[in-house]
């Protein structure tokens, strides 16, 4: 098999091309191979030897034949895979898992807005030529979509982890609120771009991202409704000991409050 390799650098670049084409992050593949992300990065960038045995293992994890990796065009457009969702502990925040182009795009959108941003400006911030940027991304829209997807994946996964720690409805609501406060403190730039540029998304992406924002809102709404039902049941039990408690599951707090306004 080693005779088939087109060279260490090319083989690594081919692995990267297939990995990204399969939508797998470097970190996920490294974890499956039981190596560090730094080791895999060195392989993909031609700075570490790729043995036939490791190539076979990579092919198995990516669920492709070895020959498909060896046939891959290392110079083809390679789109960076979406970052992995965050895992608990949900209160901890590290640096953004962004490549240099995404970092540059985020800074550009913050400074001049999506419509004021240019590919040339983003490329300059990233230290790339315009052609070099287009090697990785199709344009501003794809950069904005990647930032929005990362934002919602990060927020939703943290929210789920926070909610699952709650021992009762009130604590679940409190933890969801705490998560939102922490997220918008530590990820203020993402939150700002997400709110300011949601109308800059094309129709399909706008609809998809809006659905993810709605999912976050529903988590909070459901926690509020659960807490209201629990409070109503507790109040009934205190006022009318032994009285059967049957709180409607579809209780609407805002409508009920409106009736008594």
Concise synopsis of the structure shown:
The chain is mostly helical and 261 residues long. Helices cover 65% and strands 0% of the residues.
Provide structural commentary.
There is one protein chain. With 261 residues, the protein is mainly α. The protein has a domain at 2-71: 434 Repressor (Amino-terminal Domain) (Orthogonal Bundle), CATH 1.10.260. It is built from 13 helices and no strands. The chain has helices spanning 8-21, 26-33, 37-44, 52-62, 66-71, 100-112, 119-126, 130-134, 140-165, 169-186, 188-196, 203-239, 253-259. α6 crosses α9 (140-165). The radius of gyration is 24 Å and the shape is globular. The relative contact order is 0.08. Residues 1-9 and 247-261 have low confidence and may be disordered.
What secondary-structure arrangement, pairings included, does this model have?
Blueprint: H1 8-21, H2 26-33, H3 37-44, H4 52-62, H5 66-71, H6 100-112, H7 119-126, H8 130-134, H9 140-165, H10 169-186, H11 188-196, H12 203-239, H13 253-259
Helix pairs in contact: 2-3, 6-7, 6-9, 9-10, 9-12, 10-11, 10-12
CATH class of one domain: Mainly Alpha
Query: Mean pLDDT, as a whole number?
Result: 83
CATH superfamily of one domain: lambda repressor-like DNA-binding domains
The CATH topology of one domain comes to 434 Repressor (Amino-terminal Domain)
Overall form: globular
Number of alpha- plus pi-helical segments? 13
N-to-C SSE string, H for helix and E for strand: HHHHHHHHHHHHH
CATH architecture name of one domain: Orthogonal Bundle
**Helix/strand/pairing class, anyone?**
mainly alpha
Number of DSSP E strands: 0
Beta-strand percentage range: under 5%
First-residue to last-residue Cα separation: 78 Å
Question: Could you tell me the radius of gyration in angstroms?
Answer: 24 Å
Low-confidence stretches: 1-9, 247-261
Largest sheet: none
Fraction in helix? 55-70%
């Amino acid at each position: 098999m080693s005779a088939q390799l087109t060279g260490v650098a090319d083989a690594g670049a081919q692995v990267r091309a297939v990995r990204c084409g399969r939508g797998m992050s470097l970190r996920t593949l490294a974890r499956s191979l039981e190596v560090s992300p730094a080791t895999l990065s060195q392989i993909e960038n031609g700075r570490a030897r790729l043995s036939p045995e490791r190539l076979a293992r990579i092919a198995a994890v990516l669920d492709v034949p070895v020959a498909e990796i060896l046939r891959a065009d290392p110079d083809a457009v390679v789109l960076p895979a979406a970052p992995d969702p965050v895992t608990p502990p949900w209160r901890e925040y590290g640096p953004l898992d962004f490549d240099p182009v995404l970092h540059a795009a985020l800074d550009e959108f913050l400074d001049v807005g999506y419509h004021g941003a240019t590919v040339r400006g983003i490329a300059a911030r990233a230290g790339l030529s315009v052609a070099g940027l287009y090697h990785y991304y199709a344009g501003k829209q794809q950069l904005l979509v990647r930032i929005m997807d990362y934002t919602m994946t990060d927020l939703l996964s943290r929210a789920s982890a926070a909610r699952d720690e709650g021992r009762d409805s009130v604590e679940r609501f409190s933890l969801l609120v705490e998560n939102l406060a922490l997220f918008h403190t530590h990820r203020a730039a993402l939150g700002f771009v997400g709110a300011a540029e949601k109308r800059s998304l094309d129709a399909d992406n706008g609809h998809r991202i809006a659905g993810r924002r709605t999912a976050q809102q529903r988590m909070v709404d459901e926690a509020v409704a659960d807490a209201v039902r629990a409070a109503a049941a507790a109040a009934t039990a205190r006022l009318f000991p032994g009285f059967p408690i049957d709180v409607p599951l579809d209780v609407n707090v805002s409508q009920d409050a409106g009736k008594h306004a």
